[in-house]
């Protein structure tokens, strides 16, 4: 039985900026003879993006260890400022129309993606003031599950039981790696040096994580809704521009001093954060434009796996047996979703035939 089309993801009056002409909407396979890479282009792009996200987080961790420390809002300003400049240069060179305001018909959706994306980004940082990294990570990684549900409800995308099971197993893997104290009851799961927090403050931290989850859910769902009606750089431009504006205003309102570079390592790490952030957001946007939300978000759990590997290589952190088990579960779930062939959506084929 075919599912009704969502009005959010269709707009015949808008130019198609997509480059993959062999795939139907919603990630349906138009040609069963396509190669493995072509069939799973969206999912693979999402997994690649998680490597850059993890690398960026490692760079931020190294940056926070330098003196003087850089405030989170300043990092966002620099990272998103670099992303905005890169997007504008690319679109100008390639002659992409409407490089700043985006194409007509999706501008409101682009704005919605930008605002929700900022809250998704800032909510995570805010939560770390009151929660351990493990606690915050587990809570924020509810995003793939909520995004898959949102895609099914608002975009009318299919969400199979097998995909749901893969998502739950992936979340289990995150729990095993993070080992939050509120689940495992061990003080070893809380990083040393984390200040004691009152119940009200901890509740505020959990609330911030929920803000991050809702923000990311709105951002990822809107990217899929926009689809190929806007170029990936349009999506990136809106997000980076508004994140830069809001973060800059936040620094002014809260009187946060600007920290200037004091060493070449300081400059290098900030540059890496900006470049890796640009690469990660570009790959993620391209992946979500080509893949259903329910299937694509499963690949986001790969970030935890990449983070464990990079920490081992750069910081010598030896993961525990539970962390290794969690990483194996995460990658196995993502691999299962990638390897499982999708059936063409009959309703998409019918719609295309009628046009």
From TrEMBL:
One of its GO terms (cellular component) is membrane. It holds the Pfam family EamA. InterPro entries: EamA_dom (IPR000620), EmrE-like (IPR037185). It comes from the Eukaryota. Keywords: Membrane, Transmembrane, Transmembrane helix. The chain crosses the membrane at residues 43-63, 75-96, 108-128, 134-155, 164-183, 203-223, 235-258, 264-284, 296-315, 321-339. It is a multi-pass membrane protein. It is found in: Membrane. Residues 41-178, 208-338 form the EamA domain. This is Drug/metabolite transporter superfamily.
């Amino acid at each position: 039985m075919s599912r009704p089309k969502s009005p959010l993801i269709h707009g015949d009056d808008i130019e198609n900026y997509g480059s993959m002409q062999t795939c139907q909407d919603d990630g349906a396979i138009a040609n069963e003879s396509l190669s493995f890479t072509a069939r799973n282009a969206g999912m693979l792009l999402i997994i690649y993006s998680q490597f850059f996200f993890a690398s960026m987080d490692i760079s931020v961790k190294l940056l926070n260890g330098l003196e003087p420390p850089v405030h989170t809002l300043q990092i966002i300003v620099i990272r998103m400022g670099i992303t905005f400049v890169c997007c504008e240069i690319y679109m100008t060179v390639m002659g992409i129309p409407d490089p700043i305001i985006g194409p007509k018909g999706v501008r409101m959706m682009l704005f919605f993606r930008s605002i929700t994306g900022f809250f998704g980004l800032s909510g995570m940082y805010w939560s770390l003031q009151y929660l351990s990294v493990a606690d915050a990570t587990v809570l924020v990684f509810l995003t793939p599950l909520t995004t898959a549900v949102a895609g099914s409800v608002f975009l009318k995308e299919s969400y199979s039981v097998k995909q749901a099971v893969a998502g739950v197993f992936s979340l289990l893997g995150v729990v095993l790696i993070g080992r939050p104290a509120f689940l495992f009851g061990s003080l070893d799961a809380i990083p040393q040096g984390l200040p004691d927090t009152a119940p009200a403050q901890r509740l505020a931290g959990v609330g911030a994580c929920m803000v991050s989850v809702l923000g990311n859910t709105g951002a990822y769902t809107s990217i899929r809704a926009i689809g190929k009606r806007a170029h990936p750089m349009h999506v990136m431009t809106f997000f980076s521009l508004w994140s830069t504006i809001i973060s800059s205003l936040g620094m002014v309102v809260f009187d946060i001093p600007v920290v200037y570079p004091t060493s070449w390592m300081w400059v290098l790490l900030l540059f890496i954060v900006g470049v890796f952030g640009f690469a990660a957001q570009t790959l993620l946007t391209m992946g979500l434009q080509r893949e259903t939300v329910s299937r694509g978000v499963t690949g986001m759990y790969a970030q935890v796996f990449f983070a464990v590997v990079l920490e081992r290589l750069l910081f010598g952190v030896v993961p525990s047996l539970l962390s290794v088990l969690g990483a194996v579960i995460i990658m196995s779930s993502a691999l299962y979703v990638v390897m499982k062939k999708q059936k063409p959506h009959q309703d998409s084929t019918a719609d295309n035939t009628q046009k």
